[in-house]
Amino acid sequence: MHAPRSLPAALSFTVLLLVLSGCELNTAWNNPYPPEHAQSNRIDSAFSEQPAHLDPARSYSADEYAFIAQIYEPPLQYHFLHRPYQLEPLTADSLPVPRYFNAKGESLSAAAPTDQIASSEYVIRIRPGIQYQPHPAFAQDATGNYRYHHLTPAQLTDIKTLTDFPATGTRELTAEDYVYQIKRLATPWRHSPIAGLLTERIVDFADLTAHITAAAPPAIDGNRPFFDLRSLPFRGAEVIDRYSYRIRINGRYPQFLFWLAMPFFAPMPWEAEAFYDQPGMANKNLTLDWYPIGTGPFFLSENNPNLRMVLTRNPHYHAEHYPTSGSDEDRAAGLLTDAGQRLPFIDQAVYSLEKETIPYWTKFLQGYYDSSGVSSDAFDRAIQFDNDGSAALSPELTQQGIQLTTAVNTSIWYLGFNWRDPVVGGTSERARLLRQALAIAIDFEEYIAIFANGRGMIAHSPIPPSIFGYRAGEAGVNTAVYTWEQGHARRRSLIEAQQLLTQAGYANGQDPTTHKALTLYYEAMDSGPDSKAQLNWMRKQFAKLGIELVIRATDYNRFQEKMRDGSAQIFMWGWNADYPDPENFFFLLYGPNRKQTGGENAANYHNPEFDRLFEQMKDMDDSPARQAMIDQMIAILRHDAPWAFGFFPQSYSLNHAWLHNVKPNLMANNTLKYRRVDPIQRDQLRTRWNQPILWPLGVFAILLGGLLLPVIFIIRHRERRSAYQ
Amino acid sequence: MTAYLIRRIWQALPILIGVNVLTFMLFFVLNSPDDMARMQLGDKRVTQTAIDNWKAEHGYHLPLLYNASASGIETVTDTIFFQKSAKLFVFDFGLSDSGRDIGYDISQRLWPSFAIAAPSLVIGLMVNISLALLIVLFRATVIDLMSVAVLVVLLSISGLFYIIAGQFVMGKLLHLVPISGYDTGLNAIKFLVLPILIGVVAGIGSGVRLYRTFFLEEIERDYVRTARAKGVHEWVVLFRHVFRNALIPILTGVVAILPLLFMGALLTESFFGIPGLGSYTLDAINRQDFAIVRSMVFLGAVLYIVGLILTDISYTIADPRIRLANS
Amino acid sequence: MTLVILTTDALLFLLVIGIISFGIYAARREHLRAPWRHVVRSSIAVAALIICSSYLIIGLLDSIHLRTSPTATQVVSVFDLWCDSLRTRDEKTYSAPFATHALAKETVMQADGTVMRVYPRLQYGGAHLIDPVHDRNSDILRTALLGMIQGLFAWTLVVLAVIQLFAWHSRQPFNTALTAVWRGDTDIPWRTAFITCAALFIVGFISAELSQHYHILGTDKVGGDVFYQSLKGIRTGLVIGTLTTLVMLPAAIVLGIMAGYFRGWVDDVIQYLYTTLSSIPGVLLIAAAILMLQTYMTNHAEDFNSLVERADLRLLFLCLILGITSWTGLCRLLRGETLKLRQADYVQAALSLGVRHSTILSRHILPNVLPLVMITLVLDFSGLVLAEAVLSYVNIGVDPTMHSWGNMINSARLELAREPIVWWSLTAAFLFMFILVLAANLFADVVRDAFDPRMSNRR
């Protein structure tokens, strides 16, 4: 009997909905955040991959740096506004100047030839008075003993997260914390990804590793008990006094300063290890990998990688101010309005887990994320090109007050030929011509147009713009693949590629031995939604020359394995610069750095002349001589063609009108402290953009009612009939 | 009863061991411990020493199944298989390959999964049963025929379609619910509305059709005919006799899947960004985190067996003629 | 031109041969023939069967693979050759159904060196039109009309031929037969069959005509014709839906019957086997197996000459692993049925007479469980087709280079967020899948009712 009664209810509900849809509601139903946060001074952002490691000794990915760069402070940082990228002191009081020594320990001048320099010494002085974030590891009782350094299992039972420890404390940052962290990098069970590199670079690093291995207590159930590294002698990094320390490097290594701006060289208080390495902590995920402890502008107040991460302003943050110098464009863009203000501006940054791109983009348009990249699928809606080809925002988004910033990334995508492969690799003229022909035939302009919506810049050499050694215009054209016509680089025609192919002995792409089409193998990684299209496209490029391309698609893991054992033939891969120096790109082609020997030279390229130039170039300061050397190296690469230089990706990012002080900085990760938001404006716009549309629900309810009505009528009719019977 | 339970649990052991062996074989055929180390350590500047360190730290330095260098019982126990499997039986899942405690993550992610699955099941049951009853009321009429046709149509639509269309219309066009995400406590409700709605709608086709046959089967039994012949009112017949008796097969069917509610819905969770066990599993597959996949397989198998036992018990409760010993 | 036989091709044709020979076998046995007679007398079943058959014909045509020349490494199917124009006429990127211009603007360099953003004309879609804005609609209408007339003509020929045959068979004059069919007075619902055929013919001919000049379902990201891709998806769907059941059949039948017949420790072992397998969550098992296959393929790359072969092996493997996860249900059913049959008088009698086990099994047990097997085969089909889409969505389905509805949906899910929205790939895949699954479900319903006497009075 419940059906007839529900009809009036359904009808009145419909009426209610229709009434509601007529008036403006002041809440948005689809707001993913709790209503009480509506006007708080915070940034709403997202992360797509769970960070795996937040320990600065271990972390080495952009996803993780998005968090830990706001928390940990290495001695140096990149200037927020200046270009080309420029280092400036962060916790240090000035940029350290290296002193050089020969093998006998005698001091040398900076101009001394590299082969005489046996070691260099960096003395870093940090500013006094910098305090750590509040953290239970520092909590002391009245007598000055650490409260939580000797926890019993009983004390631990009620602890689930770090916030369950009632007391916190802080302490001043000292030089010892920096030295402690460098020693942590040498600790084998911390698995620092740069340990191998530092073994070559830092004096006595390998000895320290051996020392630690010998002296450390064994692991219990996979967890190491606390092992105090402070007392270990280490010539590579030494404390001079409370506020200064010294790092010794083998030979000359000018790029070392860049490393000092990375979280690897952030300070780590010994109290942290003493606290986290207690038994029972790891089973509750209470480790340095999950709960960072730093001096930075923010600390991680909520750590739930399954849902959200929250950074909150560090109440003890030292006095740091917004930069006062910048270019005229910066001033025009309003990037200097806040000059000289105390940092940071925001109280909180909330990062929600967002794996799929569609919801991310939709939520950005709805105003629930403050900034967003532009995925290729949403591109045409967001970006329009002017007649001169420059990108601008579509009127629709401009009306929403969204702003666009673009930057050419310090990274490169390239098509590599395995130097060890008998067909496409090696120094033979036949293989070289084949590579050249392919480099012409593979139309990366089209690739960029289709798969990146034009967000890429054709690479004529491995050096992207904004890195020393890059040449723009005619001087930078790769003449093996391009010609310079009317102020534009023009890809050589397919006919030229076919001629090269004929010269190589593959007329019309036919293999002279089998008289079949030449078959090449392409190693492809991943198999996401887009990859099928990309693989098809790649096949078409080779088919233009009559070459059959067999694609071996594997997951990234397997792809890397093939790179390591050098069994791939042709592959496409990318590289993201660690620091803004040409050395960081050329070393991808440096012979001794071959992938098979554990390096990053995935093409296994090897050319003695190139290697010789590289060894000289890497230790030079930026100068015309260095530029000349780089030009020479690029000429060799263009001739040998171990890569078909692909393109430098461009990143376009959008931000809403209420977010201020946005300037892409591809080297600095700690830019959150410069951001400013206008929460009132944000709240108003969000509500206005997200009025629920209710009339379709009403229509649906009416339709349902219309369907139910005859049913009820029939039931009634039947009942009456059966009652009469 | 207790004796029965003990025996069933005892019988479950070899099944769980079998499950473990199978998953273990599958994963190590495709992935060497070296691969796993590389996966976890990242791809930049990794040395063989670092890999060996990682393997030793995570217990992957041992031989897979048989340790030839050990002696006595240790040839079997001092292997990756034994070390990694033994603890599962006391539900100690250990650390994932990326270093998080799996038990902790599972306990966190259990509830979002449950928060979607349980309401979907309950609301779905109510909707399906009412619709089925309504259709049965019109049995052997055009309405019945048309309803069945509609049900078959609903049944033939891919589940992906319901999800994609639902998200697009409700979230993007109408601004009624957040398009994805999750929150804790009461704030979760607005995130759950759409996935639950989609879960219910997607289940209508098959559910109503099945329940309709249950009801029809019941309606043709002699006692129902007798009741009707005695002039008992149609509504009373339907609710007092048909509904009650048909509820038994429906509920016993439900009992079997109850424990699996915790396993989460793979597609729904990943589409809506809900941090449940379904998306946990999917992520683990994509990241090839063997420790998590193995734990989830084990958990799934345990819950499946619990479901089997619960079904047996519910049969005896529903029909006392069946004795537990026979099953 | 040389024939290339892929494993799934061979198995698919084996299945067809199997079904035909089973038909001949069943025709002589009343207990098998009666339910089928019941099936073909249902008009729903006949309509569904005709739709399924049209899918099957395309699927089978797509399963005869050829190497067009001895030097070519590419393998194409007869179906590919048949609609060669669809296959080869790729645009550059997205275009809407019946579009004459690309969906997105493109930078075009003018003769004078200036650059402009315009919607470029498509290379093939509506390329014959001089003024596409003006002429397109009337051209579409004209072409569609032409297709319809052709379709009706072909249909009339077929119908007349069939009625002639029917008249011949039932020894009636042609006119009487025609009237009977017209009135629906025949045992087999010929009228429904002809109406379904008419719809199929008209739709088929219209789309064939139109697809010569337009991309009737648009193009995808790299300009491939979506209509062609949807048609190619048919084979994948059919293979998954049928071969999965086929490959699991031997194991399920043998083990199920053995468990029920021999009981004792054999039963225990087999029960243990299927409980263990079915307690593993299916998706995890499939994921593991597919990843494993990928590893194998990478390590043995030289064994696979072409992409088609690789994709084919993966498809077969997917069927196999889906079979492994789904055979347990049938095995359990067969075990129960055999347990029941073993108690039957004639089996008991045979046992006491000392008849050999193998004879009892093949003479008495196997024929009696066949209907059960058949119902499972038909019932599982639609579920498997749908499962393929879901698996491809989580990237553990068929090879990404293979045309399948799942892959189409997977790559299309990002397209809904595009502006302007790209809805045609998704819609086409869902539509093609929906029609097949709906037809299969309707057919399965009738089959189940026919074989299950308890259910026969339901409809």
From TrEMBL, chain A:
<dbReference type="Pfam" id="PF00496">
    <property type="entry name" value="SBP_bac_5"/>
</dbReference>
<feature type="transmembrane region" description="Helical">
    <location>
        <begin position="693"/>
        <end position="715"/>
    </location>
</feature>
<dbReference type="GO" id="GO:0043190">
    <property type="term" value="C:ATP-binding cassette (ABC) transporter complex"/>
</dbReference>
<keyword id="KW-0472">Membrane</keyword>
<keyword id="KW-0812">Transmembrane</keyword>
<keyword id="KW-1133">Transmembrane helix</keyword>
<keyword id="KW-0732">Signal</keyword>
<dbReference type="GO" id="GO:0030288">
    <property type="term" value="C:outer membrane-bounded periplasmic space"/>
</dbReference>
<dbReference type="GO" id="GO:0015833">
    <property type="term" value="P:peptide transport"/>
</dbReference>
<protein>
    <submittedName>
        <fullName>ABC transporter substrate-binding protein</fullName>
    </submittedName>
</protein>
<dbReference type="InterPro" id="IPR000914">
    <property type="entry name" value="SBP_5_dom"/>
</dbReference>
<dbReference type="GO" id="GO:1904680">
    <property type="term" value="F:peptide transmembrane transporter activity"/>
</dbReference>
<dbReference type="InterPro" id="IPR039424">
    <property type="entry name" value="SBP_5"/>
</dbReference>
<feature type="domain" description="Solute-binding protein family 5">
    <location>
        <begin position="172"/>
        <end position="595"/>
    </location>
</feature>
<comment type="similarity">
    <text>Belongs to the bacterial solute-binding protein 5 family.</text>
</comment>
Automatic annotation (TrEMBL), chain B:
<keyword id="KW-0813">Transport</keyword>
<comment type="similarity">
    <text>Belongs to the binding-protein-dependent transport system permease family.</text>
</comment>
<keyword id="KW-1133">Transmembrane helix</keyword>
<keyword id="KW-0812">Transmembrane</keyword>
<dbReference type="Pfam" id="PF00528">
    <property type="entry name" value="BPD_transp_1"/>
</dbReference>
<dbReference type="InterPro" id="IPR045621">
    <property type="entry name" value="BPD_transp_1_N"/>
</dbReference>
<feature type="transmembrane region" description="Helical">
    <location>
        <begin position="145"/>
        <end position="169"/>
    </location>
</feature>
<feature type="domain" description="ABC transmembrane type-1">
    <location>
        <begin position="110"/>
        <end position="314"/>
    </location>
</feature>
<dbReference type="InterPro" id="IPR035906">
    <property type="entry name" value="MetI-like_sf"/>
</dbReference>
<feature type="transmembrane region" description="Helical">
    <location>
        <begin position="296"/>
        <end position="318"/>
    </location>
</feature>
<dbReference type="Pfam" id="PF19300">
    <property type="entry name" value="BPD_transp_1_N"/>
</dbReference>
<dbReference type="GO" id="GO:0055085">
    <property type="term" value="P:transmembrane transport"/>
</dbReference>
<protein>
    <submittedName>
        <fullName>ABC transporter permease</fullName>
    </submittedName>
</protein>
<keyword id="KW-0472">Membrane</keyword>
<feature type="transmembrane region" description="Helical">
    <location>
        <begin position="189"/>
        <end position="211"/>
    </location>
</feature>
Automatic annotation (TrEMBL), chain C:
<feature type="transmembrane region" description="Helical">
    <location>
        <begin position="188"/>
        <end position="208"/>
    </location>
</feature>
<comment type="similarity">
    <text>Belongs to the binding-protein-dependent transport system permease family.</text>
</comment>
<feature type="transmembrane region" description="Helical">
    <location>
        <begin position="272"/>
        <end position="293"/>
    </location>
</feature>
<dbReference type="InterPro" id="IPR000515">
    <property type="entry name" value="MetI-like"/>
</dbReference>
<dbReference type="GO" id="GO:0015833">
    <property type="term" value="P:peptide transport"/>
</dbReference>
<keyword id="KW-0653">Protein transport</keyword>
<keyword id="KW-0571">Peptide transport</keyword>
<keyword id="KW-0813">Transport</keyword>
<feature type="domain" description="ABC transmembrane type-1">
    <location>
        <begin position="234"/>
        <end position="444"/>
    </location>
</feature>
<dbReference type="Pfam" id="PF00528">
    <property type="entry name" value="BPD_transp_1"/>
</dbReference>
<protein>
    <submittedName>
        <fullName>ABC transporter permease</fullName>
    </submittedName>
</protein>
<dbReference type="InterPro" id="IPR035906">
    <property type="entry name" value="MetI-like_sf"/>
</dbReference>
<feature type="transmembrane region" description="Helical">
    <location>
        <begin position="313"/>
        <end position="334"/>
    </location>
</feature>
<feature type="transmembrane region" description="Helical">
    <location>
        <begin position="6"/>
        <end position="27"/>
    </location>
</feature>
<keyword id="KW-0812">Transmembrane</keyword>
